[in-house]
Write the structure tokens for this entry.
Amino acid sequence: MNMIVTTASPATPNGTTRPQVRIVIVGHVDHGKSTLVGRLLHETGSLPEGKLEMLKAVSARRGMPFEWSFLLDALQTERDQGITIDTTQIRFRTNSRDIVLIDAPGHAEFLRNMITGASQADGAVLIIDALEGVRDQTRRHGYLLHLLGVKQVAIVVNKMDRVDFSAERFKDISDEISAHLSGLGVTPTAVIPISARDGDGVAMRTDRIGWYKGPTVVEALDGLEPARPLEALALRLPVQAIYKFDDRRIVAGRIESGTLIAGDEIVIMPAGKIAKIKTVESWPVTPVAGRQGAGRSVGITLDRELFLERGDIIAHAGSAPRETRRLRARIFWLHDKPLAKGDQLLVRCGPKESRATVVAIEKAVDPGELSSVENKAIGRNHVGEIDISLSNPIATDPSTENPRTGRLVIEVSGRIAGGGLVLSVDAGQRAMPVDIVPVESALRSDERSARYRHNGAVVWLTGLPASGKSTLAKALERRLFSNGGSPVLLDGDTLRAGLNSDLGFSAADRSENIRRLAEVATHLARNGHIAIVAAISPAREDRATARRIADTAFREIHVATPAEVCEERDPKGHYKKARAGTLASFTGIGNDYEAPQGAELVIDTSTRTVAEAADAIEEMLKTTGVLFDEVVDLAANI
Amino acid sequence: MDHLDQLEAQSVYIFREAFARLKKIALLWSLGKDSNVMIWLARKAFFGKMPFPALHVDTGKKFPEMYRFRDHYGKEWDLDLRVEPCPPIDAVDPTLPPAARSAARKTEGLKMALAKYGFDGLIAGIRRDEEATRAKERVFSPRGLEGNWDVRDQPPEFWDHFNASPPQGAHLRIHPILHWTEADIWAYTKRENIPIIPLYLAKDGKRYRSLGDQDITNPVASTASSIDEILIELEQTKVPERAGRALDHETEDAFERLRVAGYL
């Protein structure tokens, strides 16, 4: 093989050691963002060879005068409309910085793109047309910079050539915007008069702005600081996933703040369980010995087997985040339909997600208007403060204490619809007492398995209505019990009569129904029982949730009886009613049942007797380590 | 943490999000420097073994060195390699210019592979600095039922929260190295000792900066015969990376038309 394997050498000659700063340029539409970007690229010698000539040729061909903004408008659709519709990223250099320039659109229609761009920035340039002055998008963008946590903001007053480079006009605008921003807690790092078209104030101080003594735009950019990882704050490691690719059980995630090292005592929130970090895993060299700081994506192993899941937060004991079911947030809203009290949402806080309900809305305003009227709902592109109640407890911090974990996004129909900062957790009364300390059983799992001759498990039977799930579940229960085991039957319909009586048949309620079934079953499994769950559970995602909850104890059985056979059986008369149109939300007619792909066992009850099917399940439970084979194994266990 | 550590940590985060939130994903392995870095990053994210398939949509027209590389490292890296062919050129939109039409075969091949395996997420090694339309991309980028990209209606994406719910039957493109530059790729390749195809290094005054199909990729003038020399060359050059890719230069909008139709 003549492949080249590179040799290691410490120096990278490409300047990657220079500080890299990401900048966003924002402001009202047509105030000259793209022109400034084009001019900056030219002044810093960053244009690709031939690009300027190519664009000049394109302009000539279209019979238009050349515009600097054409540089960014590489998309056909943009040229046709004459506006920048999306964020692009362009790089150039100042004396001491590598600048990544994120252009963000000023058109109100594309606020979601401005937010997408600005959220990645370390600093911002807010551009204002000297002739037009401060406009609604100027104010809106200023407000959003504050919400997005962009603290370094330079103001440029553009098109000074249109106001004869008037120092008075510049001062008026400078005073107005500075007052607006300081009201939001943002202090501009500089206010600079420029003409992006002609170049004044961009890289040079020209005579025409001779009265101005501050920095040029390039100098201001040179003074911006890159974002610093938050190592000084308390440890926050949100769990992205738990991997068991080999004999290691690795908890993976990115350290959002603080540091960790093998041997640290940690607490897993929101459950509050305690463990020690055994190793910090890596690849190709593992384990790693040193301290790992904020910004690192890591994997750790723990000194004991604990139930963890995606979204949990690992912290140091003594400085853990607060666990809550209720919080207050200041948010911006991007969805067409205004956000109103009582709305059901999905909230994401790092990798954690929870369904949520808006319980109160305050201070809903349009941040673009000067004297905005307060509304009862938060309209598109508006901001407001909301109280939300969460269906699952989450661990979080107020954003003033931790800007990384103290923020959230809101999803509607699987699409991000808004986001904002956590102002306070635990506003109003709690749904649960503060100090929940789950009591662990006094019995050890080997004591239980020695008696029952099996390990705890969740046997999950999924399939169409009338496919034979309940019949099989009952047969299996009887069989396990006869052999001295401890099975518990959990039937979907039975639980709906009590524990789940508050739930209907919407997709969200079905998900919650499955989650509760899985939680109860997992509790039983952890205490040595075999929980047999018979539930249609049509959604693959819901079953995946159940598997995540039950973890290694999960055994999925797809009762794959053909649909025609199920419909013919129809013991509860549901198919008949559904066909007649008198039973809504019925799984079975149509194709809303998502068959499992990785089930431990598939059984078609139209071709097997109940006893044969029970045999097959028993065999699967043996081969997957739930049932102990014979006395020999039992003896080995004692 | 230095610059490369930061890039790596961000990419690892993206890989883990994709693996956690989607049901069936694959990595598009074009055999080039970028997708080799991606595989390396995936192995970092998952502690040695990439837990999903590497999909090579094969035009059949790659350089022999590329096929040798694939067959060798597919085994050495223990990849679940799936090689899928592209349809013949006659099956592709005849209104496209020749090189774009040739590249569009890959889009068709990709659609066929999607239909065959039912992936809901494809991991692709595009970067923002490569090409202006790629600069508009999201990290998690939804595709329509036809695999098309609606650049006018991209969902918001911020604070590393990604839109990971493609509509039924559609899929997502995931771009773990969107924030890297060409120089970053080389600096990281060097630091991590990632193998490369020798065509990237200068021979007789020419080298390939970007590798595509043999008939539509040309070498650029260069004397850089090591990664260090490539890094110095990139420091000084103003020639764009894809200068050797014929399809980028046919008409102003050829590339965008391809991307809207589902090209990478």
